[in-house]
UniProtKB/TrEMBL annotation:
Domain spans labelled Sodium/calcium exchanger membrane region: 55-202
One Pfam family, short name: Na_Ca_ex
Protein name as it appears in the record: Sodium/calcium exchanger membrane region domain-containing protein
Gene3D superfamilies (alphabetical): NCX, central ion-binding region (1.20.1420.30)
Membrane disposition: Multi-pass membrane protein
Natural source organism: Coptotermes formosanus (Formosan subterranean termite)
Length: 213
């Protein structure tokens, strides 16, 4: 279980004053470009005055997530073109890791509070939502606006999807082998499975391994 004092600190209003330690100052400068726009445009619902504006904060948060997501994809695309990395590889590695950070933070928070089952179900549910809603909705809007389908070009995508299902089976087997308990051994196993999936998928993308489908 998490320390109650930590939970109380998380419920305190945002403090943007200059920190007093070097480590906190470095963190402050790194997150300032993200925090300041949110602080200026979204009411802090943890303050007595801001509680009644929670609908504005909720809708505004969704808008800011969309804006930051657009910028992240744009910068990743430009960086990939500059370095010479294909968009498929950027999406498989950097974008996949970047979009999963909020899920990681959420899982850590609920796991520290003792809700391990919620942490696992949140990660699984978010990925299902991404595939069944996050992909179809933009494609649907694109088809309505431009009147043509979205072409998806990726070498070995069929094999990558097959590997994804195999990885899901291995994940379930791994959790069962550790008696359905989240520990360090299971964490290292998950890391190993992820790196294997990325390595094999990159081999398909660069045609080191040819997908027969």
């Amino acid at each position: 279980m998490a320390d109650p004092d930590d939970e109380d600190e998380g419920n305190e209003p945002l403090d943007i004053s200059w920190p007093d330690t070097a480590r906190k100052r470095i963190t402050y400068l790194l997150v300032a470009p993200i925090i300041f726009p949110l602080w200026m445009t979204l009411p802090d619902t943890r303050t007595p005055r801001g509680k009644k504006f929670f609908p504005i904060t909720f809708i505004g948060s969704i808008v800011w997530i969309a804006a930051y997501s657009y910028l992240m994809v744009w910068w990743a695309d430009v960086s990939g073109d500059t370095i010479g990395i294909p968009p498929e590889v950027m999406g498989l590695t950097f974008l996949a890791a970047g979009t999963s950070i909020p899920d990681l933070i959420t899982s850590v928070i609920v796991a520290r509070k003792g809700f391990g089952d919620m942490a696992v179900s949140s990660s699984v549910g978010s990925n299902i939502f991404d595939v069944t809603v996050g992909l179809p909705v933009p494609w649907l809007l694109y088809g309505i606006i431009y009147g043509k389908p979205v072409e998806v070009n990726s070498v070995g995508m069929v094999c990558s999807i097959a590997i994804l299902f195999m990885m899901l089976v291995f994940v379930i087997i791994s959790i069962a082998c550790f008696h359905w308990k989240m520990n360090r051994g299971l964490g290292f196993t998950m890391f190993l499975l992820y790196f294997v999936f990325v390595a094999v998928s990159l081999m398909f993308e660069y045609k080191i391994i040819v997908c027969p489908f």
